[in-house]
Amino acid sequence: MNKLAEALGRNQASSAPATGRWAVPAGRILAAWNLFVWGGRIRNLLAEPGGLAEANRWSLVGSMTFCLLAVVVLGLAFGLRRGRWSREGVRHRERVVAVVMAALGVVVWTYRGVAIAGAGYSVGFVAVHTVLALITIGLGLIVLAPGRAGER
User: Fold this and answer.
1) How many domains, the chain?
2) Terminal-residue alpha carbon distance, the chain
3) Which of 2, 7, 18, 107 has the fewest beta carbons closer than 10 A?
4) Nearest C-alpha neighbor of 70 from the set 103, 105, 101
5) 70-120, pLDDT tens digit by residue?
6) 14 part of a folded domain
7) Is residue 54 part of a domain?
8) 145 φ, ψ (degrees, to nearest 5)
9) Residue 65 and residue 111 in contact, taking contact as beta carbons nearer than 8 Å
């Protein structure tokens, strides 16, 4: 039994990334989620009369930033390799961009969640945005989690 545990530990150590087993899939899920959430925000901004007014320009820039990061993560994940980039190099780049996207998402949604909850919006609006915040922060924390024991 002990030899089996050692063999399994050796296999995990050699095949699992040092950054956590769930980090890469969570980064891809977070990227798809961000395209859904922030793509919807862009659509809503452009559909509003005066959607590109001064007050909304920064919201549009922020939304486009999240969408760009998401496209980069998904592009790296699904085969936009160039030249001499190895599979490990692509995965590393994907991980770096996913970490940036996750950290930015945790900060932005923590701020937005508090701001929206205290701004006097309707209960439904606050509830929807709380769910968006919790999902984004949860996925972000999974991406940002350090490697688990046994995955060295």
Assistant:
1) 1
2) 22
3) 2
4) 101
5) 999 999 888 765 656 667 778 888 899 999 999 999 999 999 999 999 999
6) no
7) yes
8) -60, 135
9) no
User: What is the SS3 assignment for 37?
Assistant: helix
Domain membership of residue 11 (yes or no) is no
Q: Cα dihedral sign for 45, 46, 48, 52?
A: positive
pLDDT of residue 123: 95
**Closest-CA residue to 41 (of 119, 118, 120, 136):** 136
Question: 8 lies in a domain?
Answer: no
Q: What is the pTM of this model?
A: 0.76
37: which 2 tokens?
């959430």
| Alpha-carbon span 150 to 119, nearest angstrom | 45
The span from the CA of 105 to the CA of 58, in Å, is 16
- Are 52 and 147 spatial neighbours (Cβ–Cβ below 8 Å)? no
